[in-house]
Design a protein that fits this description.
78 residues; alpha+beta; two-stranded parallel ribbon; globular
Length: 78
């Protein structure tokens, strides 16, 4: 339980320098689109890729998800 109770200290120099991509799922009824958008707002600089998928794109559209992940990797520095 220790890691859950330890406060996080995020900074632009550390957390802010990590490239992030969020794959949002338009048909997700587990994590609604407004909640997904809020999570993205909490991590400024996150790139968004949108799939017309439910909560589990790895099952309902694995090829589209793989393409999205590959595109995100191609855009990442390094």
């Amino acid at each position: 339980i220790g890691p859950l109770m330890t406060p996080m200290r995020l900074s632009a120099e550390r957390w802010g320098s990590v490239p992030r991509t969020y794959i949002e799922c338009l048909q997700d009824r587990t994590v609604t689109l407004p909640m997904q958008r809020r999570m993205q707002e909490l991590s400024p600089g996150t790139r968004r890729i949108t799939l017309d998928s439910d909560h589990s794109p790895m099952f309902c559209m694995p090829e589209a998800l793989a393409d999205a992940l590959e595109a995100a990797a191609d855009q990442s520095p390094g």
